[in-house]
Design goal:
Order of helices and strands: HH
Number of helices: 2
Shape: rod-shaped
Distance between the termini: 108 Å
Structural class: mainly alpha
């Protein structure tokens, strides 16, 4: 066997040793599927948290509006009784 053929066989052997097996690929696919499920769960949790925060913000804005209305009424009352 000449040197070129030996070199080619060495390269092919190296490639074959480093090549992923079907089991390796199945393992990677399973790991990726598990990661996808985890990410989906996290996204669902984050979506729920954002919705809850949005509701809380709407409530706070509602209170701010009510407070502003009350402050306007207090201002009118103060003017009428002469303390403003």
């Amino acid at each position: 066997m000449d040197e070129n053929t030996k070199h080619i066989l060495e390269i092919i052997t190296d490639i074959h040793e480093q090549m992923a097996t079907k089991e390796d690929i199945k393992t990677i696919i399973n790991e990726m599927e598990e990661m996808r499920r985890d990410l989906q769960a996290q996204i669902a949790e984050n979506t729920k948290a954002v919705a809850e925060l949005s509701e809380q913000i709407r409530n706070v804005l509602g209170y701010a509006k009510e407070i502003n209305l009350l402050m306007e009424r207090v201002s009118v009352i103060e003017k009428r009784i002469g303390i403003a």
